[in-house]
């Protein structure tokens, strides 16, 4: 690790009330400004880990620390985290503008004061022309871009993304991958991206944390030493292919070890 | 095919309105023919014309009675809206409150109003208040149960998002849960509108049998004692018309509030 540490999870475990052990001794550190992916099979606890980081779920044991921020009682720095869920999670009764406005509205900022900020966020995701459209009038990809704009409007330090593009078609997903990388650089964000796609994680991430099957824990991490900006030439390059192969092999090995050990 | 779409949609609208009117005209014609062919006297089954005549001849009496019934129905509906939504909001704030009080709301609903009404008139001096209470009891529950369901059905991701952005209880209620419950509330309102009228009519019957009353149900009761069947039919016609107008008003309100975003009121092009 070379950057300033932003977030550290130490030995975090989570057991649900029905006895399901979702996470077991999950340990990882995230640097400021990094783009990391949590990669693992479905049900390995990736989303649970993200929710614990966001303060939306409690951990059973373990510790989360924020070296550079003052943690609140929820153990996360209030207002510095945004979350993009698997679904666009838009309010169907509100326009794109009003959906993006919501996080600022909750802070009791007036519409006039924050108008330019909301427009700026919509502009960043190329949806300013659709500010007055309702979610039902937007395509799946556009809805997800509104969701990203809403996450960015609070100018967060850390953006948590829980398989946000899983339901989209390949071309839309590629475009949104590129848009996301641009936004990450523009906003100087740290991103934790949950996915079960090896290809997506390699394309986007500086670092990939591979998680074992349930109960989830980090079994290894892989650095993707390809500089940004990344584009279609990277996606079709031999090095991308090699990284994908390496990641896939590591994931397969990790899962095999888990199977043997259990 | 696409070019034909608007014309097809337009003709469907015409048919939608025209078809019930044709059926009604046919039914009235058949009714009239049955009376003539079987030479049925008007004190058993009046002809449609007799009913129309009663509507015109007794219009002062009928309209005064209609005003009374309408006043009770609408007042009960307004109180049911505020009471039902208010209580649903209270239930949404605490599962304990919901668990404590919801069974009583159910008991009030499942006990037929016809058996509660006489008791109400024993304990309540004011005729108007008694009638209002009966209509309110019937109209209150659909709004309470639908709104409670709506408030509890908010998308869990959206609720998580509100928590993440530090929304307090009232912000979550105002910005998220109430708008999400709107379609459910409006569904309940459509049912409650009709039930408020039914509650008012039943209460008027009960009160009327006891010698107090002035609404449309009382007119029916009085006309039945006098064997004035055309007037009975005229009063029934006004009750049905009132119910229809209430339903249309609530449907219109639902359309205006939901047509931009909710599936139930939006039209998808095919």
Structural write-up:
The complex is a heterodimer of chains A (262) and B (270). With 262 residues, chain A is an alpha/beta fold. Chain A folds into two domains: 5-80 and 158-261, Rossmann fold (3-Layer(aba) Sandwich); 89-155, no CATH class. Helix content of chain A is 37%, strand content 22%. Chain A is built from eight helices and nine strands. Chain B folds into two domains: 1-40; 47-265, Orthogonal Bundle (MetI-like fold). The N and C termini of chain B lie close together (10 Å). In chain B, helix 3 (59-93) crosses helix 9, helix 5 packs across helix 8 and helix 8 packs parallel to helix 9 (216-225). Chain B is flat and about 75 Å long. Chain B has 270 residues and is an all-alpha fold. The A-B interface holds A 51, 54-56, 78-79, 81-83, 85-87, 89, 91-94, 102-103, 105-107, 134-136, 154 and B 155, 157-158, 160-167, 171, 175-176, 179-180, 182, 260-263, 266.
List the helices and strands and how they pair.
The complex is a heterodimer of chains A (262) and B (270).
Chain A: E1 5-15, E2 21-31, E3 35-39, H1 46-54, E4 61-65, E5 81-84, H2 96-105, H3 111-124, H4 140-152, E6 158-162, H5 170-186, E7 190-195, H6 198-204, E8 207-211, E9 218-223, H7 232-235, H8 238-261
Parallel strand pairs in A: 3-7, 3-8, 5-6, 6-7
Antiparallel strand pairs in A: 1-2, 1-4, 8-9
Chain B: H1 5-37, H2 48-57, H3 59-93, H4 95-110, H5 113-123, H6 127-152, H7 156-164, H8 169-209, H9 216-225, H10 229-258
Helix pairs in contact in B: 2-10, 3-4, 3-6, 3-8, 3-9, 4-6, 5-6, 5-8, 6-8, 8-9, 8-10, 9-10
């Amino acid at each position: 690790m070379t950057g300033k540490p932003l977030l550290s999870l130490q030995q975090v475990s989570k057991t649900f009330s029905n006895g399901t052990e979702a996470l077991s001794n999950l340990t990882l550190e995230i640097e400021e400004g990094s783009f990391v992916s949590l990669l693992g099979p479905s049900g390995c606890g990736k989303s649970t880990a993200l929710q614990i980081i966001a303060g939306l779920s409690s951990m059973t044991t373990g510790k989360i620390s924020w070296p550079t921020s003052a943690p609140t009682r929820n153990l996360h720095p209030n207002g510095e985290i945004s979350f993009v869920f698997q679904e666009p999670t838009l309010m169907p009764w509100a326009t794109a503008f009003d959906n993006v406005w919501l996080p600022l509205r909750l802070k009791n900022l007036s519409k006039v004061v924050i108008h330019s900020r909301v427009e700026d966020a919509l502009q960043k995701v190329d949806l300013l022309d659709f500010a007055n459209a309702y979610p039902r009038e937007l395509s799946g990809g556009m809805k997800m871009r509104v969701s990203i704009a809403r996450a960015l409007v609070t100018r967060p330090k850390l953006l948590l993304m829980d398989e946000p593009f899983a339901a989209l078609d390949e071309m839309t997903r590629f475009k949104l991958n590129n848009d996301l990388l641009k936004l990450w650089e523009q906003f100087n964000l740290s991103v934790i991206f949950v996915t079960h796609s090896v290809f997506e994680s390699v394309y986007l991430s500086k670092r990939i944390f591979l998680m074992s099957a349930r109960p989830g824990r980090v079994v290894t991490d892989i650095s993707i030493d390809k500089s940004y900006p990344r584009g279609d030439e990277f996606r079709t390059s031999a090095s991308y292919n090699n990284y994908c192969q390496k990641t896939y092999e590591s994931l397969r090995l990790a899962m095999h070890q888990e199977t043997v050990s259990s | 095919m696409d070019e034909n779409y608007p014309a097809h949609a337009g003709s469907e609208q015409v048919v939608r309105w025209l078809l019930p009117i044709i059926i009604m005209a046919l039914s009235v014609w058949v009714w009239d023919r049955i009376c003539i062919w079987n030479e049925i006297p008007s004190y058993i089954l009046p002809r449609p014309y007799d009913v129309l005549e009663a509507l015109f001849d007794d219009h002062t009496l009928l309209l005064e009675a209609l005003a009374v019934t309408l006043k009770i129905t609408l007042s009960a509906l307004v109180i049911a809206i505020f009471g039902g939504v208010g209580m649903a909001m209270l239930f949404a704030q605490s599962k304990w409150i919901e668990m404590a009080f919801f069974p009583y709301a159910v008991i009030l609903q499942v006990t037929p109003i016809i058996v509660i009404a006489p008791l109400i008139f024993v304990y309540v001096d004011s005729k108007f208040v008694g009638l209002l209470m009966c209509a309110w009891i019937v109209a209150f529950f659909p709004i309470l149960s639908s709104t409670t369901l709506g408030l509890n059905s908010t998308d869990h991701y959206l609720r998580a998002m509100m928590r993440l952005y530090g929304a307090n209880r009232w912000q979550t209620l105002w910005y998220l849960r109430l708008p999400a419950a709107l379609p459910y509330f409006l569904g309940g309102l459509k049912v409650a509108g009709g039930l408020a009228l039914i509650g008012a009519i039943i209460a008027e019957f009960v009160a009327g049998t006891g010698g107090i009353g002035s609404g449309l149900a009382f007119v029916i009761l009085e006309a039945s004692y006098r064997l004035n069947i055309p007037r009975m039919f005229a009063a029934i016609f006004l009750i049905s018309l009132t119910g229809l107008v209430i339903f249309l008003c609530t449907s219109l309100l639902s359309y205006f509030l939901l047509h931009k975003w909710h599936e139930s009121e939006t039209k998808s092009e095919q």
